[in-house]
Design goal:
It comes from Microbacterium alkaliflavum. Nucleotide-binding protein. It holds the Pfam family YajQ. By secondary structure, the protein is an alpha+beta fold. Helices cover 38% and strands 28% of the residues. The chain contains four helices and nine strands, in the order E-H-E-E-H-E-E-E-H-E-E-H-E. The strands form two sheets. Strands 2, 3, 4, 5 and 6 form a five-stranded antiparallel beta sheet that branches. A hairpin with a 2-residue loop joins strand 5 and strand 6. The longest helix has 17 residues. It is elongated, with a radius of gyration of 20 Å.
Length: 162
């Protein structure tokens, strides 16, 4: 019997992220507590730019955006936000959405699979994803349970289960 396998990836649905940003933008424009604060949220190339006239308002806009991401099923582990930075009369927060698994995280995941996973399981790094193989599908499901329970700083999805 051939080996069963699956891939571990970290991807974001760009359309869902865009929808979350648009919803956050609408809410910021309509909410009473944001009136007169020049608060805004928008794409700036591949990054998300949040502006407001005070540090607290900028953090509040970020909080609104985070709640919209959660409602859209995007993990906050994939959101990389900086601290509010004063720029003239306004405060800015630059955020980005992380995709792909870095080499450092891939090695960490591989080590977890080797150390704590079933012995019949093999993993290999392929660019920004990992392929996990085993003869037993039960062992592969055990690896998925193990990785879901592990506290990693990256959002993982399991795809191409064969």
């Amino acid at each position: 019997m051939a080996d069963s396998s699956f891939d571990i990836v970290s991807k974001i649905d760009k359309q869902e992220a865009d929808n979350a940003l648009n919803q956050a933008h609408k809410e910021v424009e309509q909410r009473y507590d944001f009136k007169g604060t020049d608060a805004s949220i928008a794409w700036s190339g591949e990054q998300i730019l949040i502006k407001a006239n005070s540090e607290e308002r900028a953090k509040a806009v970020l909080d609104v955006f985070q709640s919209k991401l959660i409602k859209r099923g995007i993990s906050l582990k994939s959101l990389d936000s900086g601290e509010p930075v004063a720029s003239g009369k306004e405060y800015r927060i630059v955020s980005s959405l992380k995709e792909g698994i870095s080499q450092e995280n891939a090695k960490k995941i591989g080590k977890i699979i080797r150390d704590e996973g079933p012995k019949s399981v093999k993993s290999q790094i392929q660019g920004d994803e990992l392929r996990v193989q085993s003869k037993s599908r039960d062992d592969l499901q055990e690896v998925q349970r193990l990785l879901k329970a592990a506290d990693l700083d990256v959002d993982l999805q399991f795809v191409n289960y064969r």
